[in-house]
Amino acid sequence: MPKYRFKLDFKVRDYECDMQGIVNNAIYQNYLEHCRHEFLQSVGIDFKRLAQEKTFLVVVRAELDYKAPLRGGDVFWIGLNLERVSPIRFAFLQDIFCYPDQRLVLSARTIGTALNEKRRPFLPPEFANLLGPPKIPL
Question: Any catalytic annotation for residue 18?
Answer without folding.
Answer: yes
